[in-house]
Structures are given as C-alpha cells and as structure tokens.
MPP9 phase (Pomatostomus ruficeps), 238 residues
Amino acid sequence: LSVASIEDPVVMSKIRQNLREKHARHIADLRAYYDSEIQSLKQQLESSHRTASNEELKKINQSLADRDWCNLCVLNRCDELDAALNEANARIKALENKNNLLEKQVAEWRERFCAASNSSKALQERLEETRCAHKEKDNTISRLQSRLRELEEAFEKAYKLSDNKNTRLQEESRMFQNLLGEYESLGKEHERVKDTLNTTENKLLDANTEISDLKRTILKLEAQLKQVEHENALKLRH
C-alpha cells in the first residue's frame, strides 16, 4: 500500500474490516479444529473403554488432559489477540478524531490569519492615503506661510510709503486677517490629520501583533498535527 492509500480513511476502514473478518475466521477455524480433535479423542476413548487396560486408559486420560490444556491456552491467546485488536481499533479511532479536530482548527486559524492579513493591507493603504493627504496639507501650509510673508513685506512697504492711505491699509489688513484665519484653520486640519495618522499607525501595529500571534499558533497546531500523523503511522505499522 502507498502512503496516500494508508492516509485514506476509506482504505483504512476496509483494511480494519478485512483484518477483523480474517481474525474471526481464524478463531472459528481453530475452534472447529480443536472441537473435532476433542470429539475424535472422545470417540477413541469410548471405543477403547471395552478393550484397553487401566494403564492405557490412564495414558489416554493424560493425553486428553494435555490436549484440553493446550486448547484452553490457544483459546485464551485468541481472546487476548481479539482484545488487543479491539483496543488498537479504538486507539486508531481516537487518533483519527483528534486528527480531524486538529485539521479543523488549522483551517479555522488559517481563515483568521487571512482575515487579519486583509485587514492589515487595508490599514496600510489607508495609512498611505493619510500620509499623502498629510503631505499635501504640509505643502499647502508652506505655500500659505510664504504668501503670508510676502504680504507682510508688502504691508510693511506700503506702510512706509504712505501713512495717509488708510483705505488701502484697511483692505490689506482685512486680507491679512483672512489669511490668518485660513492659516489657523489649516493648522487645525493639520493637527486632525496627525491624530488620524497616529491612530492608523497604532491599529497597524496591533494588526501586525495579531498576525504574529496567529502565525505562532498555526505553527504550533501544524506541529501537533504532524505529531498526531506520526503516531497514526506508528499505530498503523504496529
């Protein structure tokens, strides 16, 4: 038999059934043989009762006793082999149940590992998107800061050139206040983006930790599965 045939539950069930049938036929043949021997000896004893002497009767009785003892030993040995076979079948059934349970656990942990991997990938994509948005916000803030400096310089120049141009100064002051408000709004948005980025990075770390735990659990379950398969092979060879 090949290794694949031995690992097939249907093939193993047929093998055990054939072994049980052969064992039962062997025991039945032994019992029939010894029963016929005993019957033959009894007939010989009955036929020799009339003609045999006392010494011959003693020898025949001793021979019958010896054969009865041998028959009893053989029957006891058959019972022991039958009990051992039943015990081995029960052990093989228990190992098969344990093997099936471990396979289900491995499949379940693999599914959880795939789900965690997909979640980790999604978090990484969201993290990259958040980083890109954060970079764009930083660039916008840098441009606004440059624009603010330019306006400040222009305001200082205008203030030096003319102290009487109040209208123009008020307009520039209003523009300056608007820019300051926009700058503050962008600063708050920048802080919110930073908080979101930190939260996403923490989630990614938690997902990576969970993935590592799942990998270790899968390796442990696969090791237990290999051990059970090794025990199954040893039991089958026994």
Summary: The chain has a mean pLDDT of 79.
